[in-house]
Backbone:
């Protein structure tokens, strides 16, 4: 398995992962919102801010990050490939692409939300700390912040 920058030729395989995890991601429940997300992914790919993990030419994990906002935007791993270190591979790669002299942020599920157990543990492992409570796509989230003192 390896982490690669996603390209437009990967979009169909990328969206297979998105379709698979969409029920767990607020804002991706509807077909129209997934089409909009596809356009977003293509824009991120053009800027080399979309990475994926491939195994035998199959995409099994995806991540979008923003250099401009210095943040992790989206992270998803195919259910059958979870607990294989793919999220860590993606996060480590993205952190190397972001500006460590500034805070790096990510928004994830809140404490107590079953969907947040794995991502919150992942971000804590890399030194992110809990920040403000937010609402995104009409769903309760929480900002996590990797500050200079915590970065690894």
Residues:
């Amino acid at each position: 398995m390896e982490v690669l920058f996603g390209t437009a030729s990967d979009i169909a395989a990328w969206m297979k992962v998105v379709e698979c995890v969409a029920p767990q991601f607020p804002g991706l429940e509807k077909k129209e919102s997934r089409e909009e997300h596809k356009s977003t992914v293509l824009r991120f790919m053009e800027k080399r801010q979309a990475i994926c993990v491939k195994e035998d030419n199959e995409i099994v994990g995806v991540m979008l990050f923003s250099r401009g906002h210095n943040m992790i935007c989206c992270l998803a791993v195919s259910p059958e490939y979870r607990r294989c270190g793919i999220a860590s591979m993606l996060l480590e790669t993205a952190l190397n692409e972001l500006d460590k002299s500034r805070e790096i942020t990510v928004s994830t599920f809140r404490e107590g939300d079953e969907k947040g157990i794995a991502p919150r543990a992942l971000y804590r492992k890399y030194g992110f700390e809990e920040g403000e409570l937010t609402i995104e796509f009409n769903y309760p989230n929480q900002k996590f912040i990797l500050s200079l003192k915590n970065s690894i």
About this structure: The chain has four helices and seven strands.
